[in-house]
Protein: Response regulator
Amino acid sequence: MSLGQQLAPHLPFLRRYARALTGSQAQGDKYVRATLEAIVAAPDQFPRDVDPRLGLYRMFQGIWNSANYDETEGRAEPGEGNEAVARARLARMTPLSRQALLLTAMEGFTPEDAAYLIEVDTTEVESLVAEALAEIEKQTRARVLIIEDEPIIAMDIETIVRDLGHEVTGVAVTRDEAVALAMEDRPGLVLADIQLADDSSGIDAVKDILAEFNVPVIFITAFPERLLTGERPEPTFLITKPFQRSTVKAAISQALFFDQSTVPAEAA
Structure:
């Protein structure tokens, strides 16, 4: 099996990680493309002594670290909008902590694998994750609309949201109900399942909401690869079903991290 064939199944999930890390489909996909170009240009540099997925993410981390080093040295164009907001927050938080959180909680890597990817000792990973959660949760509070038709899952998500210190504005089970709740009490974050109770679409509900006002959205789906092809406008933040509580926490924190409405006054 060629290297390309080995890496293909992992690309949708690398896109998910890249988008969550950057807060942007366009920026995340740009880093993924750069990673693939680097592999094609120098296939002998690809780590062959580890699992292909681990090697792919390691190559991505090299691209990411190089790009962010250039920004630190002042060689990148200044960011605007969400990226500028993120930079203001990054001034008060170690970037490695965010990467450790996303790699373990969202991408499912072990602490050992995460340590390999971000090039730290395994013992450091837990403290980095704890640092990321503490800092992000301290900076961001929001009012959250949950769009989910399975009662047990909705209840679980609601508990996670409240445990993070956020307020739940409502739980909708259909497209129409979701839009009505959003218009009645505008949320600062939306968590949306894809398939809803009356065979309506959570994607359509979100489109209707976004037509009225901007709000960060996290989609929940059992088939994330279907929404992560890189070929059309797609969600920036995705949670895969079945999910772990830590995954939901990481996704919420990261989505709010890039939301301009949650910037503390001193960071604006």
